[in-house]
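B., you asked whether I could sanity-check this one before it goes into the benchmark set. Here's the sequence:
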Amino acid sequence: MTNDTSSIDELIRNKNPFAGHIVVRSSQIWGKSFPDVISINAHASNAVFDAVDKVSKGERETVGITIMAEKGAGKSHIISRIRHRLQTENSAFFIYMGKYDNLNQIKYEFLQTVASSLRAHGSQNVMQWQEIAAAFINEVRGWNYTPQQYIEGIYPKWLNKYSNKFIDKLTEIILQNKPEITNPYLVKAILWTLSSAHSTYANYWLAGLDLTQNQAEAMGLPNFEKDDKEAEGLKTVRQILDIISYYKVPVICFDELDNIEVNEYGLLSAHLVASLVKDLYNNQKRGVFLLAMYPRTWNEQIKTLPQAEAVIDRLVSEQLDRQPLKLNNLNADDTVAIVSQWLQVFYQENQVTPPHPVYPFNENKLREFGKSKPTVRSLLKWCAENFGNSPIEPNEVQEYFKNELTNVEASIDVLMEDDEAISNALRLAFSSLVGEKLEGIAIEAIEEIQANAVDKGYIDFKIVGNDRKVKIGVDVIQQSGGKYVGAALKRLIDYEKFDITRGCLVRSKKISAEASIPNKCLKQLLHHQGGEWVKLQSQDIKPLLAIWFVYSCESYELTEEQIVNFIKQEQIAINNPLVREILSEPSGQEPSDLTDDDLPISIPQSVDSSTDNIDLNLSIVD
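And here's what the prediction gave me:
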């Protein structure tokens, strides 16, 4: 490592470790974290660790903890600290919900959150679902194999020898051992996560989403008729949480509860989540519930709920004063400690040794700033603006965009299944183009589709142009189930009802040849109504998703004008191939090179030879 001051100053002029990292995003909860000073607000994180310990020992069944602090005070920093320590210690399964896209189906959305969280890697560097599956098998067979051994060696050999029958037999044995589990298909789906060829589809099914008929039959997982997704979602979530609690304590965290959107009954996300936690607290075998919110949310929303006393008793179950844990703002020592920690990581990554731990800042100035009791966010923002020998003015939108693009790159496989996020990203892109002429269309407005309750939510939005002679209805459909795809395409070809002149399907996957209704609608759309199927490709949607996440993050404190100007300056929308293809003259053809939405027909014959010593002649299949 070099300690040459000129080299360090050159580094400082070109890199700013604070810029773009003022707000904690969900990817930092799950993935690489940021520098953390664990002594700051340790009372809050320690309360969760103590609760996990008590539940593990049987001293408590369920514990509710609420953290309360103003914007930027470090709530999400604490949650990230909790997640990463639990991962290191292998003491709990962690579930995190930080966005609420559909408040009318909060329980169904929570099911998808649970499935997504358990898809994240735990302490054994495999999905948490896979840890549960391995624990299932080890328990009933008296074995001690790791998830990796099942994934890389045992499962491929069983699939070769027994085909899919061993999953049925294992499910039967597990249900005999745990008769309280009432849904055998949950067990079967969890077991399928250990198969590399089937894991993606098992995760999809566990999230409450439909598989294609071929997938469902191949894996023995039925697509249930779900007239009431809310009731089904809550029922399934309860069973999943009970299953995972056999092996570790579930820690269930609800963040970002302070938005002002309401559902059809006028209820906010804080109202809905508080009621959901009350239900789960009353019905789960064991677990720790953690909520984070502003004081205003607690006082104006939680405390005014019907039966508020019962709800509060569960949200702050360990607090004698029945009040949330409050986070403290920073003091002078905290300020120096945080800056030192961030800079230590920065200089180590760049292999240089600074003259002193807070270089290029002056420690006395940092302490003076700390006397004002800043929040974590205001300190990091001050550091971003003053990093270097003289104050700098970083392009805030640029820094946030780069940071979000990195997050999108890391989670693109999951995001490619998120219809809502893709639709929002496209809507923002087209909104920034109002007033522009592109692909022969003078874009005049981006409008919502007017629809009654039964039709709402299928067509995402419409692009209006050329004196309202062009009205393109855009529908992102990444789901696999033929029933939903058929229902969406039926709306997309009903031009008169939804006041559109062209339907545009945005999708990366094939539509099963066996799905008669979707294919009939697709033929009508492409061959008879001048519609289009635009292929969704990850490289095209990544920058649009990144700028959407910047736009949707209130904590960045950017104006819509700043973001739209950035989109225009960087030509993020106007030069995007996906945007241009949606606007271009339809080809009337199905795109080529779509991804296959069905399971592979054959099972790979090559397996890891390192598992040859594992005895597979176990008579688990008749």
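One thing to flag: Residues 389-393, 599-610 have pLDDT under 50 and may be disordered. Otherwise nothing jumped out at me.
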